Amino acid sequence: MRRFSAKYLEDTRRGMWDDRRALAPLSLRDREHVVDVGCGSGELTRVLAAETPGAVTAVDADADLITHVDAADDRVLGDATRLPLVSNAADLVACQALLINLPDPVDAVREFARVSSDLVAAIEPDNSGVDVESTVPAEAALTRRARDAYIAGVETDVTLGSHTDEVFADAGLVDVETRRHEHVRETSAPYSESDIETAQRKATGARLREQRRTLARGGLSEDDIDALRGEWREMGREVVEQMQTGEYERRTTIPFSVTVGHVE
Ligand SMILES: C[S@@+](CC[C@H](N)C(=O)[O-])C[C@H]1O[C@@H](n2cnc3c(N)ncnc32)[C@H](O)[C@@H]1O
């Protein structure tokens, strides 16, 4: 199972649900019991709890992450494909950025349909469509090169947000609706502590070192990876330098979809 830190989840979700109109298909105001599967540190759980008058249960397989969830009525340690909940326990089972991390997302959605008496929802990114604009000239192209190799080598479908409706249909859900949205993340002066840490980490090339095996599976030779990492570190140093003078700006657009389907 891919592991995430609470800090990473907090940083990458910042601002995502400032505007909640994309959640309208979940009819949160009408729910009696909502389950958030793969809740992580509870970034979506907090939004669900604020929007529904019903009870909220948060489920995750990571015993450490789930201790960070503060907005749920109940926190349950469990696997998405074998939820420790009775059939029809909820009227909405939802997840955010979970299915892209699972080897068999259809199995999980089928399990969501067992636990929900009404609706299943998934909010999933399409990592093939991420767009980066940066004041450091090399950053956009390097990010694209690294991401393409990662997507080709990773063992789960991290582009699932582009076809979540097919996964829902394969799991037997009906009246499936999906809609594409964008999460835009901007970095500019004054920089937060987290912006500075991210830039410093970029300059070490640590992420590419951690992803080495995935990048190799994605078709890069050892020499390709070393060359990419060298260029990446140089780019990271330029980001840090631009931050020192306050001129660094970056805009990242992450496409994601909100998909809902009914239980028959
Ligand atoms: C990218 S994080 C998303 C967390 C949260 N939904 C959010 O968007 O901030 C994926 C989460 O799924 C959890 N996870 C991965 N595989 C799981 C499984 N088989 N069953 C339950 N949770 C799982 C991870 O522990 C992690 O918390």
- Helix fraction by DSSP (H/I, runs of at least 4): 25-40%
Mean pLDDT: 97
Bound molecules: S-adenosylmethionine
Strand residue content: 15-25%
Based on Cα principal axes, name the global outline: globular
CATH topology of the domain at 6-125 and 158-183 and 256-262: Rossmann fold
Class computed from helices, strands and strand pairing: alpha/beta
Alpha-carbon distance between the two ends = 31 Å
The CATH H-level superfamily of the domain at 6-125 and 158-183 and 256-262 is Vaccinia Virus protein VP39
Could you give the count of β-strands? 8
The largest sheet, given as strand count, sense and whether it forms a barrel, is: 8 strands, mixed
Question: What's this entry about, in short?
Answer:
This protein has about 260 residues and is an alpha/beta fold. It is built from nine helices and eight strands.
Description of the molecule:
This protein is of the alpha/beta class and 264 residues long. The protein has a domain at 6-125 and 158-183 and 256-262: Vaccinia Virus protein VP39 (Rossmann fold, 3-Layer(aba) Sandwich), CATH 3.40.50. Helices cover 36% and strands 24% of the residues. Strands 1, 2, 3, 4, 5, 6, 7 and 8 form an 8-stranded mixed β-sheet that branches. Bound molecules: S-adenosylmethionine (SAM). GO terms for molecular function: S-adenosylmethionine-dependent methyltransferase activity.
